TrEMBL record:
GO biological process, one term: L-proline biosynthetic process
Domain Pyrroline-5-carboxylate reductase catalytic N-terminal: 2-93
Listed name of the protein: Pyrroline-5-carboxylate reductase
E.C. number: 1.5.1.2
Keywords: Amino-acid biosynthesis, Cytoplasm, NADP, Oxidoreductase, Proline biosynthesis
Family designation: Belongs to the pyrroline-5-carboxylate reductase family.
Lineage: Bacteria, Thermotogati, Thermotogota, Thermotogae, Petrotogales
UniProt xrefs under InterPro entries: 6-PGluconate_DH-like_C_sf, D-isomer_DH_CS1, NAD(P)-bd_dom_sf, P5C_Rdtase_cat_N, P5CR-like_CS, P5CR_dimer, Pyrroline-COOH_reductase
Gene Ontology terms, MF aspect: pyrroline-5-carboxylate reductase activity
Function: Catalyzes the reduction of 1-pyrroline-5-carboxylate (PCA) to L-proline.
Catalytic activity of the protein: L-proline + NADP(+) = (S)-1-pyrroline-5-carboxylate + NADPH + 2 H(+); L-proline + NAD(+) = (S)-1-pyrroline-5-carboxylate + NADH + 2 H(+)
Organism, as annotated: Marinitoga piezophila (strain DSM 14283 / JCM 11233 / KA3)
Locations listed in the record: Cytoplasm
Entry keyword Lipoprotein: no
Domain Pyrroline-5-carboxylate reductase dimerisation: 155-259
Length: 259
Protein backbone atom coordinates (compact mmCIF):
# COMPACT_ATOMS: atom_id res chain seq x y z
CA UNK A 1 0.00 0.00 0.00
CA UNK A 2 1.46 3.37 -1.05
CA UNK A 3 0.63 6.16 1.37
CA UNK A 4 1.56 9.84 1.12
CA UNK A 5 1.70 12.29 4.02
CA UNK A 6 2.00 16.05 3.45
CA UNK A 7 2.76 18.13 6.57
CA UNK A 8 4.72 16.29 9.26
CA UNK A 9 3.75 18.11 12.44
CA UNK A 10 1.77 16.85 15.44
CA UNK A 11 -0.64 14.79 13.34
CA UNK A 12 1.64 13.97 10.38
CA UNK A 13 4.34 12.59 12.68
CA UNK A 14 1.73 10.45 14.47
CA UNK A 15 0.64 9.07 11.07
CA UNK A 16 4.26 8.30 10.13
CA UNK A 17 4.82 6.59 13.49
CA UNK A 18 1.72 4.39 13.31
CA UNK A 19 1.90 3.51 9.59
CA UNK A 20 5.63 2.76 9.63
CA UNK A 21 4.94 -0.15 12.02
CA UNK A 22 3.31 -1.96 9.08
CA UNK A 23 6.18 -2.96 6.81
CA UNK A 24 3.78 -3.57 3.90
CA UNK A 25 3.18 0.17 3.70
CA UNK A 26 5.41 2.34 1.54
CA UNK A 27 5.36 5.94 2.83
CA UNK A 28 6.08 9.10 0.79
CA UNK A 29 6.36 12.15 3.00
CA UNK A 30 6.81 15.90 2.54
CA UNK A 31 7.06 18.94 4.76
CA UNK A 32 8.09 22.52 3.96
CA UNK A 33 10.89 22.02 6.43
CA UNK A 34 12.92 19.18 4.94
CA UNK A 35 15.48 19.18 7.77
CA UNK A 36 12.75 18.50 10.30
CA UNK A 37 11.79 15.23 8.61
CA UNK A 38 15.24 13.89 7.62
CA UNK A 39 15.19 11.67 10.70
CA UNK A 40 12.30 9.59 9.29
CA UNK A 41 14.23 8.38 6.19
CA UNK A 42 14.10 4.59 6.13
CA UNK A 43 13.71 1.60 3.81
CA UNK A 44 9.94 2.13 3.69
CA UNK A 45 9.84 5.90 4.24
CA UNK A 46 10.79 8.10 1.30
CA UNK A 47 11.31 11.83 1.77
CA UNK A 48 10.12 13.75 -1.27
CA UNK A 49 11.17 17.26 -2.27
CA UNK A 50 7.87 18.19 -3.94
CA UNK A 51 4.22 17.85 -3.00
CA UNK A 52 3.33 16.70 -6.53
CA UNK A 53 5.74 13.74 -6.22
CA UNK A 54 4.00 12.53 -3.05
CA UNK A 55 0.59 12.76 -4.73
CA UNK A 56 1.79 10.96 -7.86
CA UNK A 57 3.66 8.16 -6.09
CA UNK A 58 1.02 7.39 -3.45
CA UNK A 59 -2.52 6.10 -3.89
CA UNK A 60 -3.76 7.57 -0.60
CA UNK A 61 -2.36 10.99 0.34
CA UNK A 62 -2.98 12.40 3.81
CA UNK A 63 -2.90 16.20 3.95
CA UNK A 64 -2.08 17.20 7.53
CA UNK A 65 -1.22 20.88 7.33
CA UNK A 66 -3.00 23.66 9.23
CA UNK A 67 -6.28 24.69 7.55
CA UNK A 68 -4.75 28.02 6.38
CA UNK A 69 -1.99 26.12 4.50
CA UNK A 70 -4.37 23.85 2.55
CA UNK A 71 -4.40 26.25 -0.39
CA UNK A 72 -0.61 26.03 -0.81
CA UNK A 73 -0.82 22.23 -0.91
CA UNK A 74 -3.83 21.96 -3.24
CA UNK A 75 -2.32 24.53 -5.63
CA UNK A 76 0.49 22.02 -6.31
CA UNK A 77 -1.82 19.09 -7.10
CA UNK A 78 -4.98 20.55 -8.53
CA UNK A 79 -3.87 20.07 -12.15
CA UNK A 80 -2.73 16.45 -11.65
CA UNK A 81 -4.94 13.49 -12.59
CA UNK A 82 -6.91 11.98 -9.73
CA UNK A 83 -7.26 8.57 -11.35
CA UNK A 84 -6.52 6.01 -8.62
CA UNK A 85 -5.49 8.85 -6.28
CA UNK A 86 -7.30 9.76 -3.05
CA UNK A 87 -6.84 12.70 -0.69
CA UNK A 88 -7.48 12.32 3.03
CA UNK A 89 -7.68 15.66 4.83
CA UNK A 90 -7.20 15.94 8.57
CA UNK A 91 -8.07 19.66 8.70
CA UNK A 92 -10.41 20.80 11.44
CA UNK A 93 -13.52 22.62 10.22
CA UNK A 94 -13.03 21.97 6.49
CA UNK A 95 -16.02 20.14 5.00
CA UNK A 96 -15.93 17.80 2.01
CA UNK A 97 -17.56 20.62 0.01
CA UNK A 98 -14.81 23.06 1.13
CA UNK A 99 -12.13 20.52 0.24
CA UNK A 100 -13.66 19.95 -3.20
CA UNK A 101 -13.77 23.69 -3.79
CA UNK A 102 -10.14 24.16 -2.71
CA UNK A 103 -8.67 21.16 -4.54
CA UNK A 104 -11.00 20.53 -7.47
CA UNK A 105 -10.77 16.81 -6.56
CA UNK A 106 -13.70 14.42 -6.07
CA UNK A 107 -11.72 11.55 -4.54
CA UNK A 108 -11.76 13.11 -1.11
CA UNK A 109 -11.98 11.77 2.43
CA UNK A 110 -12.27 13.92 5.52
CA UNK A 111 -11.02 12.48 8.78
CA UNK A 112 -10.63 13.76 12.33
CA UNK A 113 -7.71 12.10 14.13
CA UNK A 114 -6.22 12.67 17.58
CA UNK A 115 -2.68 12.80 18.92
CA UNK A 116 -3.78 10.07 21.36
CA UNK A 117 -3.39 7.67 18.43
CA UNK A 118 0.35 7.88 19.03
CA UNK A 119 -0.49 5.17 21.57
CA UNK A 120 -2.72 3.30 19.08
CA UNK A 121 -5.76 3.93 21.29
CA UNK A 122 -7.36 6.97 19.67
CA UNK A 123 -10.58 7.22 17.67
CA UNK A 124 -10.63 8.60 14.11
CA UNK A 125 -13.85 9.88 12.52
CA UNK A 126 -14.30 9.46 8.78
CA UNK A 127 -16.59 10.90 6.10
CA UNK A 128 -16.17 10.75 2.32
CA UNK A 129 -17.66 11.50 -1.05
CA UNK A 130 -20.41 8.83 -1.40
CA UNK A 131 -19.37 8.29 -5.04
CA UNK A 132 -16.14 6.58 -3.86
CA UNK A 133 -16.27 2.77 -4.23
CA UNK A 134 -16.77 0.44 -1.26
CA UNK A 135 -13.39 -1.22 -1.87
CA UNK A 136 -11.53 2.07 -1.59
CA UNK A 137 -13.48 3.06 1.55
CA UNK A 138 -12.61 -0.29 3.05
CA UNK A 139 -8.89 0.24 2.21
CA UNK A 140 -8.91 3.64 3.91
CA UNK A 141 -10.67 2.27 6.99
CA UNK A 142 -8.12 -0.50 7.15
CA UNK A 143 -5.24 2.04 6.99
CA UNK A 144 -6.93 4.11 9.73
CA UNK A 145 -7.38 1.07 11.96
CA UNK A 146 -3.63 1.42 12.65
CA UNK A 147 -4.57 4.52 14.68
CA UNK A 148 -7.16 2.76 16.88
CA UNK A 149 -10.94 2.83 16.42
CA UNK A 150 -12.50 4.15 13.21
CA UNK A 151 -15.92 5.79 13.42
CA UNK A 152 -17.96 6.69 10.34
CA UNK A 153 -20.13 9.68 11.27
CA UNK A 154 -22.34 12.18 9.51
CA UNK A 155 -20.41 15.29 8.52
CA UNK A 156 -22.68 17.52 10.59
CA UNK A 157 -21.37 15.74 13.70
CA UNK A 158 -17.69 16.44 12.89
CA UNK A 159 -17.57 19.67 14.91
CA UNK A 160 -18.82 17.97 18.08
CA UNK A 161 -16.52 14.99 17.48
CA UNK A 162 -13.53 17.28 16.91
CA UNK A 163 -13.95 19.06 20.23
CA UNK A 164 -14.58 15.96 22.36
CA UNK A 165 -12.12 13.63 20.64
CA UNK A 166 -9.36 15.78 19.19
CA UNK A 167 -9.29 18.86 21.43
CA UNK A 168 -10.29 16.47 24.24
CA UNK A 169 -6.74 15.42 25.22
CA UNK A 170 -5.86 19.07 25.95
CA UNK A 171 -8.95 19.47 28.16
CA UNK A 172 -8.20 16.22 29.95
CA UNK A 173 -4.57 17.35 30.50
CA UNK A 174 -5.91 20.61 31.98
CA UNK A 175 -8.20 18.75 34.38
CA UNK A 176 -5.48 16.32 35.40
CA UNK A 177 -3.21 19.32 36.00
CA UNK A 178 -5.81 20.86 38.32
CA UNK A 179 -5.82 17.60 40.37
CA UNK A 180 -2.02 17.50 40.36
CA UNK A 181 -1.80 21.08 41.66
CA UNK A 182 -4.51 20.34 44.25
CA UNK A 183 -2.28 17.57 45.58
CA UNK A 184 0.69 19.94 45.81
CA UNK A 185 -1.53 22.53 47.52
CA UNK A 186 -2.43 20.07 50.29
CA UNK A 187 1.14 18.99 50.91
CA UNK A 188 2.11 16.25 48.44
CA UNK A 189 5.26 16.40 46.33
CA UNK A 190 4.79 16.99 42.59
CA UNK A 191 5.84 13.43 41.72
CA UNK A 192 3.72 11.73 44.38
CA UNK A 193 0.71 13.83 43.43
CA UNK A 194 1.12 13.04 39.71
CA UNK A 195 1.44 9.30 40.38
CA UNK A 196 -1.66 9.27 42.61
CA UNK A 197 -3.71 11.35 40.16
CA UNK A 198 -2.68 9.27 37.13
CA UNK A 199 -3.61 6.04 38.94
CA UNK A 200 -6.89 7.56 40.13
CA UNK A 201 -7.90 8.58 36.58
CA UNK A 202 -6.78 5.33 34.93
CA UNK A 203 -8.14 3.15 37.73
CA UNK A 204 -11.52 4.94 37.74
CA UNK A 205 -11.99 4.39 34.00
CA UNK A 206 -10.95 0.75 34.28
CA UNK A 207 -13.27 0.12 37.26
CA UNK A 208 -16.26 1.81 35.57
CA UNK A 209 -15.66 -0.31 32.48
CA UNK A 210 -15.03 -3.62 34.23
CA UNK A 211 -17.99 -3.34 36.62
CA UNK A 212 -20.25 -1.66 34.04
CA UNK A 213 -20.99 0.96 36.69
CA UNK A 214 -22.92 4.16 36.05
CA UNK A 215 -21.01 7.36 36.91
CA UNK A 216 -23.61 8.24 39.58
CA UNK A 217 -23.29 4.76 41.18
CA UNK A 218 -19.55 5.28 41.61
CA UNK A 219 -20.11 8.80 43.00
CA UNK A 220 -22.52 7.55 45.70
CA UNK A 221 -20.40 4.47 46.48
CA UNK A 222 -17.55 6.78 47.52
CA UNK A 223 -19.67 9.42 49.30
CA UNK A 224 -20.19 8.54 52.99
CA UNK A 225 -23.16 10.34 54.57
CA UNK A 226 -21.93 13.62 56.04
CA UNK A 227 -18.40 12.70 54.92
CA UNK A 228 -15.43 13.99 53.02
CA UNK A 229 -16.33 13.19 49.39
CA UNK A 230 -19.82 14.74 49.42
CA UNK A 231 -18.28 17.90 50.92
CA UNK A 232 -15.86 18.10 47.93
CA UNK A 233 -18.69 17.42 45.43
CA UNK A 234 -20.82 20.12 47.12
CA UNK A 235 -17.98 22.66 46.75
CA UNK A 236 -17.54 21.70 43.08
CA UNK A 237 -21.27 22.23 42.45
CA UNK A 238 -21.26 25.59 44.26
CA UNK A 239 -18.36 26.70 42.03
CA UNK A 240 -20.27 25.46 38.93
CA UNK A 241 -17.31 23.32 37.84
CA UNK A 242 -19.48 21.11 35.61
CA UNK A 243 -21.25 24.11 34.04
CA UNK A 244 -17.91 25.83 33.41
CA UNK A 245 -16.54 22.77 31.65
CA UNK A 246 -19.70 22.38 29.57
CA UNK A 247 -19.56 26.06 28.61
CA UNK A 248 -15.87 25.83 27.63
CA UNK A 249 -16.55 22.79 25.42
CA UNK A 250 -19.58 24.47 23.87
CA UNK A 251 -17.50 27.59 23.06
CA UNK A 252 -14.77 25.43 21.49
CA UNK A 253 -17.47 23.68 19.43
CA UNK A 254 -18.86 27.03 18.22
CA UNK A 255 -15.33 28.18 17.34
CA UNK A 256 -14.78 24.97 15.34
CA UNK A 257 -18.02 25.58 13.41
CA UNK A 258 -16.64 28.97 12.33
CA UNK A 259 -13.28 27.66 11.00
N1 LIG B 1 -2.92 18.88 16.61
C1 LIG B 1 -3.98 18.11 16.80
O1 LIG B 1 -4.15 17.50 17.87
C2 LIG B 1 -4.99 17.92 15.70
C3 LIG B 1 -4.88 18.59 14.49
N2 LIG B 1 -5.81 18.37 13.51
C4 LIG B 1 -5.70 19.03 12.20
O2 LIG B 1 -4.57 18.45 11.55
C5 LIG B 1 -3.87 19.44 10.79
C6 LIG B 1 -2.41 19.50 11.22
O3 LIG B 1 -2.34 19.91 12.56
P1 LIG B 1 -0.95 19.81 13.35
O4 LIG B 1 -0.29 18.53 13.01
O5 LIG B 1 -1.25 20.14 14.75
O6 LIG B 1 -0.17 21.03 12.65
P2 LIG B 1 1.41 21.29 12.69
O7 LIG B 1 1.59 22.75 12.47
O8 LIG B 1 2.01 20.63 13.89
O9 LIG B 1 1.94 20.48 11.41
C7 LIG B 1 1.79 20.94 10.10
C8 LIG B 1 3.11 20.75 9.39
O10 LIG B 1 2.94 21.10 8.03
C9 LIG B 1 4.00 21.99 7.65
N3 LIG B 1 3.54 22.79 6.52
C10 LIG B 1 3.09 24.07 6.46
N4 LIG B 1 2.81 24.42 5.19
C11 LIG B 1 3.08 23.35 4.43
C12 LIG B 1 3.00 23.09 3.04
N5 LIG B 1 2.57 24.01 2.18
N6 LIG B 1 3.37 21.89 2.60
C13 LIG B 1 3.81 20.93 3.46
N7 LIG B 1 3.92 21.12 4.79
C14 LIG B 1 3.55 22.31 5.26
C15 LIG B 1 4.23 22.79 8.89
O11 LIG B 1 5.48 23.47 8.83
P3 LIG B 1 5.62 24.88 9.62
O12 LIG B 1 5.47 24.54 11.08
O13 LIG B 1 6.98 25.35 9.23
O14 LIG B 1 4.49 25.74 9.14
C16 LIG B 1 4.22 21.68 9.93
O15 LIG B 1 5.43 20.96 10.00
C17 LIG B 1 -4.62 20.76 11.01
O16 LIG B 1 -5.42 21.02 9.89
C18 LIG B 1 -5.47 20.54 12.25
O17 LIG B 1 -6.71 21.21 12.16
C19 LIG B 1 -6.83 17.47 13.65
C20 LIG B 1 -6.96 16.78 14.82
C21 LIG B 1 -6.10 16.98 15.95
O1 LIG C 1 -7.08 23.17 18.02
C1 LIG C 1 -7.31 22.89 16.84
O2 LIG C 1 -7.68 23.76 16.05
C2 LIG C 1 -7.14 21.48 16.34
C3 LIG C 1 -8.45 20.81 16.12
C4 LIG C 1 -8.55 19.71 17.10
C5 LIG C 1 -7.28 19.71 17.78
N1 LIG C 1 -6.49 20.65 17.33
Amino acid sequence: MKIGIIGIGNIGSMLVKRFSINKEYELYIYDVNKDRIKKYEDENIHIEDEISKVYEKAIFTFVSVKPNHLNDVFDKIKDLSEENRYIISTAAGKTLADLYELSGKKNIFRIMPTVISNSGLGTTAIAYNPAISENIVSDVKSILSNLGEVLEIEEKKFDAFTVLNSSGPAFVAYIIESFLESGINIGLSHDDSLKIVANTFMGTLEYLKNEELKLSELKYMVSSPGGVTIKGLYEMDKAAVKGSIMKAIEEAYLKNKKL
